[in-house]
Amino acid sequence: MSTETEYHSKDFEWEQLRQEIESDHSLRYHLLPFHGKIESLPTSCPSLPSSSPSQDSQAWTNFHTRHSTGRFFKERRYLMKEFPELASCNECSKVLEVGCGNGSTILPILRGKESIIVYACDCSTEALERAKEMIDATNELSVKHRFHPFHCDFSVNGFPQWLACNPCQEFFSQKRHVCISDVDSSRTDLNDISSAKENNCCIGGVDFVTLIFTLSALPLHRMPTAIAACLSVLKPGGLLLFRDYGLYDMTMLRFEKDKRVGFREYMRSDGTRSYFFSLESVRDLFTGAGFTEVELEYCCVMSVNRWNGKSMRRVWVHGKFQKPM
């Protein structure tokens, strides 16, 4: 069995894990309602639980600065297997990768489908620089030409207008199989973001939005706005591909009581956040925004720490949601 297959197999039952965790009194504080009292705050970050978007962005900028070598991140080669729609999509399909970080999600998508075009954003300019460096280091010209990064905090301001607008959505709906580069250049070079901005035009919406370990980094109260923004830039029938931390994941259980900043919400010592999703919470967020559920399940993987040999039970939520036609 290959390493990738082992990485994505169902190694244990989530329900069994739930029963074990909820019967362990030492972990009971993870299950209690949150009343807003924080026993201590990270000394390295002035952010409060209700921190501003700029403080949250700065925390992630600091994070990417510390991990600028990229060794902290692994290329997510499993994505094309977990989301085969990316490999079988139409020619010149467009993907919006939200919260791209250092590019560990972007590169497998660009390599997995030779004609796919990826627009990638992050709230941290430092993260975008790391992503650009990763793509440049490939020395693959076709990959570089299909990668378009831009700075954006989608949970606050939504996405730029050039990603989608009604006139262009109508244009592309009439020419679904037209490649972006085939569009009349007198209209605008829709592959060129700056040109699209200057001409007050757009790229006509995207076929896929990928939210891979991004939503959990936001405060819970900003998640509905963020998901609604994702819906707004998808073409009708387009898919949002979701993967994030699941309830009772190993990393959740490692948080001490004083790191709680909400119910299932935690803040690390560096000021970055993490939320842990149940299937119900994900379903409510996405269907509440107008998406249709296609797939939704826990991914439960037993991983072994190669340094100490200890087994680690990882829990992620895997989901696919569609924008109604």
TrEMBL record:
<dbReference type="GO" id="GO:0008757">
    <property type="term" value="F:S-adenosylmethionine-dependent methyltransferase activity"/>
</dbReference>
<keyword id="KW-0808">Transferase</keyword>
<keyword id="KW-0489">Methyltransferase</keyword>
<dbReference type="InterPro" id="IPR026113">
    <property type="entry name" value="METTL2/6/8-like"/>
</dbReference>
<comment type="function">
    <text>S-adenosyl-L-methionine-dependent methyltransferase.</text>
</comment>
<protein>
    <recommendedName>
        <fullName>tRNA N(3)-methylcytidine methyltransferase</fullName>
        <ecNumber>2.1.1.-</ecNumber>
    </recommendedName>
</protein>
<dbReference type="InterPro" id="IPR029063">
    <property type="entry name" value="SAM-dependent_MTases_sf"/>
</dbReference>
<dbReference type="GO" id="GO:0008173">
    <property type="term" value="F:RNA methyltransferase activity"/>
</dbReference>
<dbReference type="GO" id="GO:0032259">
    <property type="term" value="P:methylation"/>
</dbReference>
<dbReference type="Pfam" id="PF13489">
    <property type="entry name" value="Methyltransf_23"/>
</dbReference>
<comment type="similarity">
    <text>Belongs to the methyltransferase superfamily. METL family.</text>
</comment>
